[in-house]
Amino acid sequence: MLDLILKVLQIFSALATVVGVIGLFLTIKTYKEGKIIQSKSEDRRIILTSIQVLEIFSNRIIPDMGKYEQEVYEEIPKNKKKAVDAINKASKESGLANIITVEDLPSELVDQIVLATKMESNLLKTFNSLEHVSVYINYGLVDDSLIYNAVHNVFCNFIERNKDVFDHLITDEVPFINIRTLYDNWKK
């Protein structure tokens, strides 16, 4: 009788082991499937965020860039003319007969006029928007390959055209670290 009980217990033990192995197998399989689903969900989220960043570029940043550049390049000749008029007025008041034209302005003064004109524009708003999307790109919250192909030329060219203002704006309070990081990465 004791032998029979031992055999029955051995059978139950063997069955429990088989059921445990099957349960473990199903748990591992379910875990792997969950990871795949989670990975696909994360990929979809990154693509959706990438699309949102592209929309920000196309609907806000690029139009702001165009508006800014049109405004600045319309104002630069006016500001050069104002500088010439002020210099000529001061010359006349001082009794000097020297009259200069815009072409006679020293290049250092022209550079200062251009910088001042750019600084008076709405460029800071554009740089702030670029800093915002640069965070998404730098920290891998978007698919860099989708973003890079679509906007890297626009981004890098804009920074290069406005490097004078960008360098002037960088302070401890406004470091634009994400724009600088992205620009350096995309220029490589």
From TrEMBL:
Membrane-spanning segments: 6-28
- Provide the alphabetized UniProt keywords: Membrane, Transmembrane, Transmembrane helix
The species this protein belongs to is: Fructobacillus papyriferae
Key word Membrane present: yes
Q: What is this protein called?
A: DUF4760 domain-containing protein
